[in-house]
Amino acid sequence: MRRLKNFYAFFILISLSFTALAETASVETPNRDFEAWKKTFAQEALAAGVSEAMLDTVLPQMKLLPQVIESDKKQPEFISTFWDYMDRSVSKSRIAKGKEMLEKYQKELNQVSKKYGVQPHYIVAFWGMETSYGAYKGSIDTLDALATLAYDKRRRAFFTRELIAFLKIMETDGLKDVKGSWAGAFGNFQFMPTSFEAYAVDGDGDGHRDIVHSLPDAFASAAHFLSQQGWNNRIRWGREVRLPSRLDWNFVYSDRPKTIEDWQKQGVLPLFQEKWPDDALQIQAELTLPMGVDGPAFLTYPNYRIMMNWNRSDAYALSVGILADRLSDQSRGVYKKRQPMTITHQEVKSVQQALKEKGLYQGAIDGKMGRSTKKAVRLFQQQNNLPEDGFISPQIVQKLVEEK
After folding, report:
1. Which end of the chain has less neighbouring CB within 10 Å, N or C?
2. How many CA atoms lie within 13 A of 19 on its CB side?
3. What pLDDT, in 10s, does the model give residues 330-350?
4. Is 3 helix (H, G, I), strand (E, B) or coil?
5. Contact partners, residue 134, CB within 8 Å, separation at least 6
6. Is residue 358 part of a domain?
7. DSSP letter, residue 364
8. Which CATH number belongs to the domain containing residue 352 in this structure?
9. Counting runs of H as helices and runs of E as strands, what totals does the chain give?
């Protein structure tokens, strides 16, 4: 019996040893690969203009952050709806804090507005959306985050460009020990390094562009970005509208530019008004339906498309516009009665698969409601005499499942 016990003890010891060796090997292998990647990256960075002295300094410091790769891969079970997003983004506390910031930094914001032609309440709205007015700029080392994502193979080319840009910024602008998001965005307005290179400016005149610690630099850089995209300070971003009982979907999706006057002829009117102001009639506008035809509807103007250049999400751009309105007391919020709704990525995948089987969808089965998915949904709605809003509602999910 003692020999049997000794045998089991020996067996367990050996098993634990092999487990420890396997775990050590699994840790050491990516680290060895990461060190090998550094050598390859160094040559690419040198060719792109990063100095050898900078590389000698930063390469030994670069650390692999597995949690960054996990964050990049992670996909939540439920898709955040417009209502969910807006509730988080345009909260009472964010509105109150934003008004406080508008007053506190009135002088700096007015100077920036005068120079770049961007209204202060929009600058503050972007600031609030990105970092809650500087309170949450991120806690992950930007150098390590970018190095990790440049090492990872899935989007290596994109993040290699961003990492090289960040190294140049460290040299020219003296930024170091910067912390930001897991994706490498940093500062009060969460610029990616290539955006910093293109749009960051020295707002306080100290000879450096510092969007992390200098609010004049941060305000000026955000306004410069919007200005360079063509921001028009004579118009708003858009406004909530009410729709007619029936929409001409061919008109809605036609490629020709449409003015507010064109929309008015279609019966699309501003809330609480029977007609549009005369001075607004020639503004070009598009219809945006973040929750489909049964949700809130907005006519969005050219400034809205510039906001989409900042972040390609309708929910984000609408929330910035609505927050800006609240900060300037131009509205009390969204008036459409909300209809709570949940949809999962798995349901979107099921819809994509069903649409693919019908020959309406050619894209990836990825659970993302992108443009190609919305276009395929519209085709299905058209075939079934349904409102062609391209929105995956629970009714669309049910109908497609029933037809399979």
Report:
1. N
2. 6
3. 988 898 888 778 888 999 999
4. helix
5. 127, 188, 215
6. yes
7. -
8. 1.10.101
9. 18, 6
* Alpha-carbon separation of residue 345 from 17, 79, 371, 374 (angstroms): 41, 6, 16, 14
| Residue 91 belongs to some domain of the structure | no
Crossing angle of helices 314-327/82-89, nearest 10°? 40
- Say if residues 192 and 177 touch (Cβ distance below 8 Å): no
Query: CB under 8 Å to 13, separation ≥6 — which residues?
Result: none
- Look at the chain and report how many structural domains it folds into: 2
Of the candidates 396, 322, 395, 305, the residue with the CA atom closest to the CA atom of residue 352: 396
- Residue found under tokens 């067996």: 11
Of 330, 315, 310, 311, the C-alpha closest to 95 is 330
CB 180 within 8 A of CB 138: yes
Whether 123 is covered by a domain: the verdict is: no
Q: Which domain holds residue 353?
A: 345-403
Question: How many angstroms separate the CA atoms of 387 and 286, rounded?
Answer: 17
pTM (two decimals): 0.89
* Strand runs labelled E in 123-274: 140-141, 179-180, 238-242, 269-270
